[in-house]
Amino acid sequence: MYRRQLVPGVRPGATGAEVVRLHALARLMLGPTFRTIQCSWVKEGPKLAQMLLTAGANDLGGTLINESISTSAGAPYGQLVPPAELRRLVRDLGRVPAQRSTTYDVLKVYDDPGEDGAEPLDAVTDPESRFGSYRRLTASGEFRFTHPLSARKC
What we know:
Elements: H1 16-30, H2 41-44, H3 46-52, H4 69-72, H5 83-91, E1 98-100, E2 106-109, H6 127-131, H7 134-139, H8 148-151
Antiparallel strand pairs: 1-2
């Protein structure tokens, strides 16, 4: 709505301070009921997501390739942050990173930074050329649906 100016007075989104307050309030209000509050590096960027880990969130999210929902809404992030970089962001806060499943079971705890080991996504230097990008995909007509009846001449 903001980008297309569909509604007068709509702001471009929450400010960074509002995002921090929201996560802090969520922790206070939901703390015992919802043990995990995720901050999204896709929506907020790695640095603000890192700050949110100090304001109530306890889950940084995961590695994504060509995330499309937030990207299509205008988020500038979402292509790829390698696992080693996500672990570094957590360690820089003095915390121990862990890998979890989609059901929040802990799969691996990275106690020792020297034992992280390189993962295949850590070696990707140019994610857009390797995986493409959502923006390039939507701009291309190659995969655009064309109704079969509209292609026929009557």
